[in-house]
Amino acid sequence: MIDAQLCREISKFGVKTVSSGLTSSRFGNISVIQGNTIIITRTGSMLDELSQNNLIEVALDGPCSSDEIASTETCVHRAIYQSTPARAVIHTHSPFAVALSLIEENAIEPIDSEGIHFMGSMPIIEAGFGSQELATAVSLVLSSRCVCIARGHGVFTSGRSLAEAFTMACMAEHSSKVRYLVKVFQIGRLD
What single-letter DSSP state applies at residue 149? Predict the structure, then answer.
């Protein structure tokens, strides 16, 4: 049974993720590590309507039978926890970050002062969603950073807490939006 307080905490950040425009519908997922288990959202969950029924416990050390009903990105979350000190992971489908991941070559480089200072370059990962290749690539990047983006898919952030992972998700989208708007403005000025 998942602790009620932890359930409320995950639910709170699910609501914040949707209300901030970082994801919509049934996209994205959230997890926290607790001992030797990962508490992760169920596949197809609406992040702004989470309850204990939408949270699944899966093994930290490897695939288990609960993986079948957990998020399709469970292998990515597991790889992050196995190779980093992260305690929380948030995956969003943030529109500006996803759009820029389809335009930029290897990384999204923030141009806003906060993005440069607190986050730095956001590497773009080439791998299919829910794949072991994505899990390996994301966990490698997040071993030295807090943010990366799967091309055309979405943002992965990690942190010591859900609040920290959420902050990084917000920063990633803000920096992506600023960069996108400046690019559009510069293109418009060329005409």
Answer: E
CATH match of 4-190 with 3.40.225.10? yes
Closest by CA to 93, choosing from 166, 28, 39, is: 28
Consecutive 10-residue averages of pLDDT for the chain (191 residues): 92 97 92 97 95 96 94 97 98 97 97 96 96 98 97 98 98 97 80 49
Q: Can you give the pTM of this predicted structure?
A: 0.95
> Phi and psi (nearest 5°) for 158?
-135, 160
Residue pointed to by tokens 């639910």: 11
173: closest CA among 53, 54, 90, 56?
A: 90
Cα(177)–Cα(4) distance, integer angstroms: 36
User: What are 74's two structure tokens?
Assistant: 């469970």
Q: Is-contact 84 75, C-beta < 8 A? A: no
Q: Would you state the structure tokens that stand for residue 133, as one six-digit string?
A: 């290749």
